[in-house]
Structure formats: C-alpha cells, structure tokens
Specification:
Layout (H helix, E strand, L loop, with lengths): L17 E13 L12 E14 L21 E7 L7 H10 L18 E8 L5 E8 L33
Antiparallel strand pairs: 1-2, 1-4, 2-3, 4-5
Length: 173
C-alpha cells in the first residue's frame, strides 16, 4: 500500500525579536538527526502558541524583504523552543521551569513536565548565532521580572522639527 504525503507551504519568516504572551501547547521528546549541529542527545521541544504581543519593535522593510512579517502577524501562530532534558542547575529546561513556577526546584525533586501544558507564559524571542529566531527566556505570565527586551534595540526618538511661524511666499511648499 502506498504512503501518501501532502506537500505543505511552511512559512520561513522569522518571528521578530520581542516579548510575547503565549500558552504552552505541548512539550515533546525530540531526538536530533544523527550528525546534527544540535548534537545527539535527546531534547524537549516546547511548542508555544502566541496569544499577543507584549512588546516588540516593528520590522523595517528592506530591498530583499519589502513586506516583512510584523510582530502582530505571529499572534495565533506556533513558535518552538528547545531545551536539553537535563535538570542541572544551569540547564535551560530547569531555568524555564523555575521561572514559570516562580520557585527554585529542589535537587532530586521529581517534576511533572506535562503539568506545564496549557499554562500561560511570557516568552522573549531573540536571535540565534545563525540569525534565526530563538526563544531565549520563558517566565510565568505576568511575572514582573519580565519587563524588557534584552535582545532588541529600541527605536530612537525622532528629532523635533522646527516649524516657521509665518508663511513665506517664496517657499514652494
């Protein structure tokens, strides 16, 4: 019997850097392909469903991308994040769990990772070394520690423009 597969148009746009409110849709076991740049160790694939933009700078058009994806275009879409399966003190997985829970895990504490599915969180999206979007921080939704975008550069304030008080007849404008 033939196995029928369907080709899909998968967007390749990168999520703009910023802070987003999201929900954890799933956390799956993931094994990188043999010889992958990500190593051979098992990882967790965190699937975040973006609910709203908390703070993000607009993306400017370029010649190569005259209509870039804007932060608001990601509302309702999924964004993935990867962690190791380790829960050592410096492991990203442990940092994310502790930040979401608002407490430190005890050494040798068992933790039900599935208890996070459906939880509201705040994610900070930055850039990897290859320029692709990357979830760099996850905190519990409404956590006051999540106040700034560490990886994004704010837009400079525009310079004030002086407007002449009188109308000059020689001025073509």
């Amino acid at each position: 019997m033939a196995r029928i597969v369907t080709a899909q148009n998968v967007p390749t746009d990168q999520c703009p850097e910023g802070v987003y409110a999201a929900r954890i849709g799933d956390i799956k076991d993931w094994l990188p392909a043999e010889g992958s740049q990500y190593g051979d160790d098992p990882q967790y694939l965190w699937i975040f469903q973006i609910g709203k933009v908390v703070h993000a700078n607009p993306v400017r058009p370029t010649k190569q991308n005259p209509e870039p994806t804007q932060p608001g275009d990601w509302v309702g879409k999924e964004l993935w994040g990867f962690t190791s399966t380790l829960l050592t003190q410096k492991a990203k997985c442990r940092q994310w769990i502790e930040s979401i829970e608002g407490r430190e895990l005890e050494d040798n504490e068992g933790y039900d990772l599935d208890s996070l599915i459906g939880r509201k969180v705040t994610i900070t999206v930055g850039r990897s070394q290859t320029g692709k979007h990357k979830v760099i921080q996850v905190t519990g939704y409404g956590n006051p520690a999540q106040t700034a975008m560490p990886s994004a550069t704010p837009e400079p304030e525009p310079e004030p423009v002086a407007v002449p008080a009188e109308d000059d007849e020689d001025d073509p404008f």
